[in-house]
């Protein structure tokens, strides 16, 4: 006989630090490099290299980062509500479907991290830069906030008595 689980599933508080520790390290496979370093991104074969590099320059000035291998763009957007995080995730998903170019997205309580790269041929392409601009446009419409203003997971701050 199968056991049914009532949702929402509540985690034992003693497991929470362990899970948070593992989650924190799950996506740290590459180091971020300074955008001030010499930019030598790997451009996908068959792309107009000067056009893609010019678009990358603008994106890097607007908060996007290149990973260590310089083949992937990454940016984290912060929001006041989890619903707005999901709104951006959905907008990017719909835009990705229409462009037939899909990102890796990491959804957290008050933020969404988006990664763009082209797998075949490997490197950065005009599809990546186009979709990164699309993400910025949609995030602006939804209303991003500074990281310090983003909603945090956990109990509200206790008031001083």
UniProtKB/TrEMBL annotation:
Keyword Manganese: no
Any Pfam family matching the protein: Pterin_4a
GO terms classed as biological process: tetrahydrobiopterin biosynthetic process
Keywords, sorted A to Z: Lyase
Domain of life: Eukaryota
Keyword Lyase: yes
This enzyme's EC code(s): 4.2.1.96
Catalysed conversion reaction: (4aS,6R)-4a-hydroxy-L-erythro-5,6,7,8-tetrahydrobiopterin = (6R)-L-erythro-6,7-dihydrobiopterin + H2O
InterPro entries: PCD_sf, Pterin_deHydtase
GO MF, one example: 4-alpha-hydroxytetrahydrobiopterin dehydratase activity
Class of enzymatic activity (EC top level): lyase
Family affiliation: Belongs to the pterin-4-alpha-carbinolamine dehydratase family.
Name under which the protein is recorded: 4a-hydroxytetrahydrobiopterin dehydratase
